[in-house]
Amino acid sequence: MSAHVASVRTTCPYCALQCAMVVEHSDGAYRAGAAAGSDGSAGELCMKGFSAGETLAHPERLLAPLVRRDGRLCEATWDEALDHAAEGFRTVAARSGADAVAAFGSGALTNEKAYAFGKFARLALWTANFDYNGRFCMSSAAAAANRAFGVDRGLPFPLTWLREADVLFVAGGNPLETMPPLERYLGAQRATGASIVVDPRATSFARSATLHLQAAPGTDAALAYGLLHVLVAERLVDDAYVALRTRGFADVRRTAQREHRERAERRIGVPAESIRRGARLLAAGKRTIVLTAGASSSIATARMRRAPTSTWRSRSAYRAARGAATGRSRARATAKAAGSTAKIGPVAGVFVRRR
Ligand code: SF4
Predict the structure, then answer these.
(1) Does 18 contact ligand 1 (Cβ within 6 A)?
(2) With contact defined as beta carbons under 8 Å apart, do 137 and 296 qualify?
(3) I need a surface site. Which of 77, 120, 222, 265 has the fewest CB within 10 A?
(4) Any bridge partners for residue 131, and if so which?
(5) What is the rounded distance in angstroms from the CA atom of residue 56 to the CA atom of residue 233?
């Protein structure tokens, strides 16, 4: 008699692409597979998605709380662990005030969990110190997007539009490794259009671009001003468009003028000629898409040499590819991937252009 198989259709929990997946449970094991019929991921998962189910029944998965006793972590009941934590909160708050306790959440929480956690921090702990891991990247990107476009991030167009872009500008992203299913769209775009990648690292994605602007870390704003300076200086700005849809452009233009090409070259380490070429490429596009920071994805679970840039439709294909990787290449990939975090942001901007 065959084992009962329970399955649920869901989304991959690992990165912002949220590929559609089906998780099956039978004989105590969980298996994640690609879900057919999805728009964005088109029935594909990367190796992170395919390995998602393995953590659920992993023998080292933590299933009970651990409380430190005499210097050793010991298994405890939930009641014991919760009493222990509450006593710790009470002791610190009594000694140093409620704000001496901080609560730190995660961008991986669902909206509901984040809401409940916020209530817990403010109403149970009475602390003003409540933060989460996205403060440095997500919050700054959200503030910038709100100021620039009036909305927080989020991809405001279907992924299929990426194929149609005749110029694609990606700043701070390495989607071939962090979101491999995007390759079907990025590859199609590269086949017919131009691409500009801003990245301090010469990733395979950056190397495959029409133009790689290898700006030094922390100089992306200087590079943006350098590009804008060229657009303004060469009269490539669509003044009517800017007048109709933007505010404060005169201020931006003044700042950009201070960042002339040579100065930008000194500050960011990109040749002035490359900055000029980038600006002209941007201005030449009829359908230009700009993707910047906003969603982050780690490839810390990578275990295969070719895995970061690969996707599979079926679990058997994934297994076969995984089995082909040698132990050595897996170790090398793991070490490399563990320290590798890249971002791509679903923020679309419209670069000014003159027709
Ligand atoms: S790209 Fe990979 S990690 Fe991201 S949602 Fe899809 S399967 Fe998951």
Answers:
(1) yes
(2) yes
(3) 77
(4) 104
(5) 57
Atom 6 of ligand 1, residue of closest alpha carbon: 19
Q: Which bin fits 18, alpha (ψ -120 to 50), beta or left (φ > 0)?
A: left
Q: pTM of the entire structure?
A: 0.71
Ligand 1: which of 45, 296, 340 to mutate, judged by most atoms within 8 Å of the beta carbon?
Answer: 45
Q: How far apart are the first and last CA of the chain?
A: 69
The CA 182 to ligand 1 mean position distance, Å, reads 10
- Dist. CA 170–CA 298, nearest whole Å: 17
Q: Can you list the domains of the chain with their CATH numbers?
A: 6-57 (2.20.25.90), 65-96 (no CATH), 152-299 (3.40.228.10)
- Ligand 1 center to 49 CA (angstroms): 5
> Does 302 sit in the ligand 1 pocket, CB within 6 Å?
no
CB proximity list for 133: less than 8 A, separation 6 or greater: 104, 105, 106, 107
- 3-class DSSP state for residue 194? strand
From the CA of 297, how far away is ligand 1's center (Å)?
9
Number of the ligand 1 atom closest to the C-alpha atom of 50:
7
Q: Is 263 exposed, middle or buried (0-12, 13-18, 19+ CB in 10 A)?
A: middle
For the CA of 17, the nearest atom of ligand 1: 5
Is 33 near ligand 1, meaning CB less than 6 Å away? Answer: no
Cα(64) to centroid of ligand 1, in Å?
28
CA-21 nearest atom, ligand 1 = 7
Q: How many CA atoms lie within 13 A of 87 on its CB side?
A: 7
- For residue 185, give Cα distances in angstroms to 19, 49, 172, 285, 290: 14, 19, 18, 18, 14
E-assigned strand segments in 82-147:
103-105, 130-132
Give me the average pLDDT of each 10-residue run along the chain (355 residues): 79 86 91 84 88 88 94 96 96 97 87 93 95 79 79 77 94 88 92 95 95 92 90 92 90 83 77 94 92 44 36 65 49 34 33 33
Task: Output the six-digit token pair for 271.
Answer: 């040749």
